[in-house]
Fold this protein.
Amino acid sequence: MYLDHAAATPCDKLVLEAMQPFFSDHFFNPSSPYAPAVAVRRQYDEAKHKIAMTIGAKPNDCIVTAGATESINLAMTAAADGHILTSAIEHHAVLAAVKRYAHTIIEPTPKGSVDLKKLEDSIKSGTKLITIALANNELGTIQPLGKIVEIVKHERDRRRQNGNATPLWLHCDASQGFGQIDCNLARLEVDLLTLNSGKIYGPKQVGLLWRRASVPLNALIVGGGQELGLRSGTENVAGVVGFSVAIDRAERHRKTESKRLMELRSVIENGLQQAFPDMQITGDRKRRLPGALHVSFPGLDAERLVFRLESRQVFVATGSACAANKGSASHVLQALGLDDQYISGSMRITLGKLNDLSSVQKALSIIIEEVNSEYQRVSK
Amino acid sequence: MYLDHAAATPCDKLVLEAMQPFFSDHFFNPSSPYAPAVAVRRQYDEAKHKIAMTIGAKPNDCIVTAGATESINLAMTAAADGHILTSAIEHHAVLAAVKRYAHTIIEPTPKGSVDLKKLEDSIKSGTKLITIALANNELGTIQPLGKIVEIVKHERDRRRQNGNATPLWLHCDASQGFGQIDCNLARLEVDLLTLNSGKIYGPKQVGLLWRRASVPLNALIVGGGQELGLRSGTENVAGVVGFSVAIDRAERHRKTESKRLMELRSVIENGLQQAFPDMQITGDRKRRLPGALHVSFPGLDAERLVFRLESRQVFVATGSACAANKGSASHVLQALGLDDQYISGSMRITLGKLNDLSSVQKALSIIIEEVNSEYQRVSK
């Protein structure tokens, strides 16, 4: 019972099938001149085209990277000589990348959203980039991108009137939420977008950075000039082909899968809430990824709970899975101003393709048993 | 008849087999806390340990990257505030990365080696890094690393005597040549080493940068803090497991494979030389990768030749396969000062696992036929 789809997702069977020919058979360097290599180049381009189409982009505005972290780092270079605004609950990749430049980090609302008032007030005349996730990776809270777009447009108007030629761009890290939320660029209206293959049943270490053609980037990795000179290195053909199948499927099944996940989540959420009336649900309950549930059992040690659940084959997380989080309290929950007892009793459940009703019901009863048993232990 | 192993190599069957479980089954994030994820972390660490052992390194001094280009870019950060020395015949990845910092590019000897005298004379008091490939990727010429190590040691002694505290490091890009040359660090005596999985029958987009613990690097990609904080992003478990199998096999079969390749090369080299006494062999014929052969047919257009050979299923290159090389003459051959007619008549043949005696003999006779036919066409 894997309830941690925000940490990693398995490669879809069709994704892996599509990748297979490119390891040992069509292994050619896409830049080589002979026919089989040219064919590989064509398949790479087609895969990239498919990825671009899925979000309503032109392939030439897309840069394939080795994952969302690299995409995010590359996106920040747009504002290398400017000021960057972001939120305190962003992923470590964003926070670490932002800290290399002039920046302001804005405290979120108690519900885990960007504080729009603070955001607007924090824009300086030299702010070049605002970077906000599509949805928070711990809480699942969907960020108010539409309203941020309005703020950005308003600020652009103001700059135009004031003769301030500094551009202002909006970057969205959609690592979490793609496949559950419509990410068509015509709807999102952002200027840069990060996508992560490894979170949507594609291969790991494959990502995308889309950017409006007018946004200048500084390559982090230079060399052979691949990816329009913005990311050199022999192309990851197998990875990109896999990513293209994954993103196509994620978008195709988005509506039905979102509905399904929301129903499964209700089963767990309602079941837990009934069993534990003191349980707190963190984040905005309305604006939330369909598969995301973040709960706190005040007074419990969630790390202990995770290990007890693990012994019964239920896999959940206390927060984001990355090296930076080892042995430290979640920076997201701290930014929300939660009491320590809520923070240490927090558990993240993220549902996905590996879950169905019966597995979710089984997991629910095990979680209830283990939380009860932990409460009994603590109360002794 | 694939004679372009320097451009790309197919994944070894055993490599691909070792990778398979990590796509859809053991897909967990290695930083997640539950047992199956911890098992994945252990397998990742074991694979990295195996890679490190193969070159005589400690795993903690190794940074996994998304390929040699990234490794090279990361290596250069060691000298961000210093001066870098390199050779004009290095790979585009090295030349492009070096150009971001204070640097001097040294002309090579006519045989395609680093000019040791020029190298020594070009060292400034602020030179922090010398970066030289193990072997040139177009000619296969093995670079005189042992002698460069001596120069570096001598310069370090001089600095110690002069009270100059500037460190001097030697980086070696061993993308070409691993599996044909002994790359044990105790023998190489370099300070940084780049390895490329995709050139030794491992998966593409996986590379390694080893660096002596005392060499400080600046991460290019920050975030979750993976790879000792020097390269963030969810680990590429499948890729690293594949790389570990590939590097182990490459090293294990190095001696027998080198001997085999040298014999196969002799067949082509002698056959061509007999058929075309005017053919020129470029590079140092003695210090050369066993599988590498670089020939020029003065007066012929090698690009035409490559396409004619392609139509007969013989795949060779005119030079390095990367986007930067499209439609421009080889910077390596230009640096060697070759006449234009030699440059445009140049062909790179790189042998490897896909070749055996019968395929090489067949390829040889086709090449002879096509070169003859091209010479006839030109002489009309």
User: Anything to note?
Assistant: Chain B is about 40% helix and 15% strand. Residues 254-375 of chain B form a domain with the Aspartate Aminotransferase, domain 1 fold (CATH 3.90.1150.10).
